[in-house]
Write a structure and sequence with these properties.
Keywords: Hydrolase. With 301 residues, the chain is an alpha/beta fold. The chain is built from nine helices and eight strands. It is globular.
């Protein structure tokens, strides 16, 4: 298996680093959006699996992520949520230009599912299916988070940091694992995966206040029913997560996420909850079983 690399410009000229795992005659193109404080390289095994199964996969580093980020984990000083959505639109347009007429499947993990859910508000009809992996549950505190990050940024700058906001967003996750050996154990039951994440300088870099502000704006948009008025209601969506993933909010949080999508109008939801797994289901020891479940959904007529 092999891949090509290319760079395209977003609406504001920001360079987006894409990686393309191309199948000879693709069944569909899978557009992959990764999570916060990581980067596209971590999806290589999954992308190669789908490539071998006949899918072309397009991954990209989110703005402020990856080796070419001007400042790691800093999305933008202001309006970062809009910049992220413009980035995804630029990538989608490039996919349509490269593979006209080929179905496109949207895949998002973690924060990537927040971006994906907001993106579907406008572009659901341009996708054949969608997969939401490790999907964070709706959070009514997003509005307060916007106000708080704006306030602190007025003193520290948008590219500054806040322990208060760090604790508010990530603190509950690290506390969710009994007898945790590291603050990152919530990511995975696979200790090798946790170790690799901790040792990778491109993973776990603290979000800036500007990045958190973008995240809170996206969460609020994700949880705004009026923004889903024109969605394609028959879009098949797979919601897949680990049963022990604190990011989903547990059984209640997973149900809230499902119910909000149903109230938004989406009718074709498939829910898969995997026993003995936490947040990064693509990196657990039995990840090939996770890959298989996702492929099964993608292949389904």
């Amino acid at each position: 298996m092999s891949y090509l690399e290319k760079t395209i410009a977003s609406k504001d000229g920001y360079p987006l680093a894409l990686r393309i795992y191309e199948a000879d005659t693709p069944k569909a193109v899978v557009k992959c959006i990764h999570g916060m404080e990581e980067y596209q390289d971590r999806y290589m095994s999954f992308a190669e699996y789908l490539q071998e199964a006949g899918y072309t996969v397009v991954t990209a580093n989110l703005r402020g992520h990856g080796p070419d980020a001007p400042k790691l984990s800093h999305i933008a000083d202001r309006e970062g949520h809009q910049r992220l959505l413009e980035d995804e639109e630029a990538i989608l347009n490039d996919i349509h230009a490269q593979w006209p007429g080929v179905p496109v499947i949207l895949f998002g993990h973690s924060m990537g599912t927040i971006i994906a859910r907001v993106f579907l508000q406008k572009f659901s009809r341009e996708f054949h299916k969608a997969v939401l992996s490790g999907y964070p549950n709706p959070n009514g505190a997003a509005g307060a988070g916007i106000v708080l990050t704006d306030l602190i940024a007025s003193f520290k700058g948008a590219d500054g940091y806040s322990k208060v906001v760090d604790g508010m967003v990530l603190g509950p996750f690290s506390k969710a694992v009994p007898d945790a050996k590291t603050p990152q154990d919530w990511l995975s039951v696979n200790p090798d995966n946790v170790r690799r994440y901790i040792e990778d300088p491109l993973c776990g870099a603290r979000f800036t206040l500007g990045s958190y502000n973008a995240l809170f704006h996206l969460i609020r948009m994700m949880d705004s029913p009026e923004l889903y008025e024109d969605v394609w209601k028959e879009l098949p969506i797979l919601m897949i997560s680990g049963k022990d993933d604190p990011c989903t909010g547990g059984e209640k949080g997973r149900a809230d996420s499902e119910n909000r999508l149903r109230r938004a109008g989406f009718r074709e939801l498939e829910i898969v909850t995997l026993e003995g797994m936490r947040h990064e289901i693509l990196n657990e020891k039995n990840r090939k079983e996770v890959y298989r479940r996702i492929l099964e959904f993608m292949d389904k007529e």
